[in-house]
């Protein structure tokens, strides 16, 4: 099982440690998220994903993953969790999600398919839109 990799990945996300995150991804890794788009979602490159994760760590107070459950899969693992944190306005955020993680032969993350409660992430989309509008 890839327990150590998964634990390092979560710690780097919540700590905003982009260098460690980058080192955990295989070259050319892709991250797919459910939601609108062709095939029911969209794919991100590592660089795009790192920008997203860095933004989360900067904008959520008490950012954490809880209720983590993991199971080994051939070539990777599946993780169910609840992402929790506090938005800048003080309101709580809670998003249930499931990750299917493919790990390459070198022990690095080659692909993630993330299925998240898209309604739960509405406050994050609203926050990002408000930040973009304030910069315009």
Overall shape: globular
Number of strands: 6
Query: Can you give the helix content as a percent range?
Result: 25-40%
The number of helical runs is: 4
Order of helices and strands, N to C? HHEEHEEEEH
Largest sheet: 6 strands, mixed
Q: Return Rg in Å.
A: 15 Å
**Gap between N and C termini, in Å?**
46 Å
- Strands across the major sheet, in which order? 2-1-6-5-4-3
Report the mean per-residue pLDDT as an integer: 90
Low-pLDDT windows of residues: none
Percent in strands: 35-45%
Structural class: alpha+beta
Describe the structure.
With 136 residues, this protein is an alpha+beta fold. The chain has helices spanning 3-15, 18-24, 46-59, 122-135, and strands at 25-34, 41-45, 61-73, 76-86, 92-103, 109-116. 35% of the residues lie in helices and 43% in strands. The protein has a six-stranded mixed sheet with strand order 2-1-6-5-4-3. Helix 1 runs antiparallel to helix 2 (18-24). The termini are far apart. The model has no long low-confidence stretch (mean pLDDT 90).
């Amino acid at each position: 099982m890839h327990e150590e990799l998964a634990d390092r990945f979560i710690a780097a996300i919540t700590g905003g440690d982009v260098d460690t995150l980058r080192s955990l991804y295989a070259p050319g890794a892709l991250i797919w998220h459910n939601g609108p788009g062709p095939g029911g979602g969209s794919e991100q490159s590592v660089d795009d994903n790192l920008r997203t994760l860095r933004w989360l760590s900067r904008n959520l107070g008490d950012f954490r993953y809880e209720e983590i459950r993991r199971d080994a899969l051939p070539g990777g693992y599946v993780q169910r969790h609840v992402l929790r944190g506090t938005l800048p306005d003080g309101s709580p955020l809670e998003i249930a999600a499931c990750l299917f993680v493919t790990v390459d032969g070198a022990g690095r993350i080659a692909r993630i398919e993330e299925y998240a409660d898209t309604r739960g992430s509405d406050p994050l989309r609203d926050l990002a839109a408000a930040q973009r509008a304030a910069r315009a």
